[in-house]
Predict the structure.
Amino acid sequence: MAPGSEKTALVTGGNRGIGFAICQGLLAQGFHVILTARSPEKGQAAVAQLSTGSNTVSFLQLDMDSDASIEKTATQLSQDISNLDVLINNAGIYPDNGASILTAPRELLIRTLNTNSFGPVKLIQALLPLLEKADNPRIINVSSGNGQLDGLSTSVPSYSLSKLALNGITILMADALRSRNIAVFAMCPGWVRTDMGGQSAPRSPEQGADTAIWLAIEGTLADSGKFFRDRQPQPF
Ligand code: NAP
């Protein structure tokens, strides 16, 4: 990227796993990265790990479960930056732990959809004024194959429903924001070696981050509303 043309990206759940790898990859591509995390300690530690040379990475505390935290982040950002080029909704939970669709308690369903689906809706709404001021704004929702119609799994019911909803949110947001020139994508990172994916997963966090980073740079309005894996559009 040419000097002075630095773009700004905000990543949720940037302190570990795929989110951290997305931050690292965007920094390498010349973005100014706003790494967000719900824990200030973990977020600051991640920023310290990424801050080398001319990298520009900053930290904001953001809990996707809290409207107050989302609003605070939006207010702070509007003071810090003039526009936001990329929003990556990466933060997520995978809390089913053996519950099936036949046993999942309401509390579990609400909790997972609250973080994985409704958090991204509220964050997009809050950051719209800053996104609208960018030249080619892009929103990337980190979804999952478990949210695809042929990938729903009864052994992770709340997670599957939350990612199915996130895919629906991607379609609705893309429709609502096309006239404002804002592109919205969903993507699956594959099965990735993180705290969530476990150590047997075949992909590194960097491999899992690749499509999100590619969409942040190359995603077009013509492809807005689509679901991607390995840089290719996939059926929902
Ligand atoms: P991970 O290692 O468990 O990391 C999850 C991240 O989300 C952590 O930074 C966590 O913060 C954050 N988070 C959770 N709840 C939050 C909240 N309320 N507010 C803010 N941050 C919150 O998981 P990962 O494997 O990197 O997953 C990243 C994304 O990829 C998720 O959306 C996941 O569903 C998706 N995905 C992963 C895989 C896989 O195989 N790993 C496959 C498909 C899709 P704390 O450190 O504070 O907990």
